[in-house]
Structures are given as C-alpha cells and as structure tokens.
Amino acid sequence: MNSFDRDLGESSLSSTSQQIIMLQRSMRRDETLVRQRRHRRLRRRMVSMTFTLLMIIPISYGVARALDEAQTARSLLENVSDQLSRAFDR
Q1: CA distances (Å), 84 to each of 33, 41, 70, 73, 81, in order?
Q2: Fewer beta carbons within 10 Å, N or C terminal of the chain?
C-alpha cells in the first residue's frame, strides 16, 4: 500500500468518524429538544389544572354556602308554616 492509499484510507476513516460524531451530537440535540417539549407540555398542563382548581374551589365553596343558606331558609319557612298552622287551628 503506498502512502497515497494510506492517506486516503485515514482521511476517509477520519471523515467517517467525524460524521458519526456529528450524528451523535445531532441525536443528543434532538433528544434534548424532545425532552424540553415534553417538559413544556407537562408544565402547561399543570398550570392549566392549577388555574382550573383555583376557579373550582371558590365556586364550590359558594355553592356549598348557598345550599347551606337555602337549607336554613327552608327550615325557617317550615317553622313559620308550623306556627301559622297551629295558630289557625286554635
């Protein structure tokens, strides 16, 4: 093998290893991008769920309070109704 063939072989080997290194870097970059996108999506979903919960909690508290007040009003009306019935029965 003459020196020209040897130089050609080494340069093609060097070129191939450079291509492999570039491909590995590209794959790592792609994996990083995928991980970042997944993380962003997850963070967006968590923020959305947090805002949903922050909206639901006061609404459910308000509904529970309104139901409690309605129950109280109903009890008062029943008491008044009973007293009126007794008053007219006399």
Answers
A1: 75, 63, 21, 16, 5
A2: C
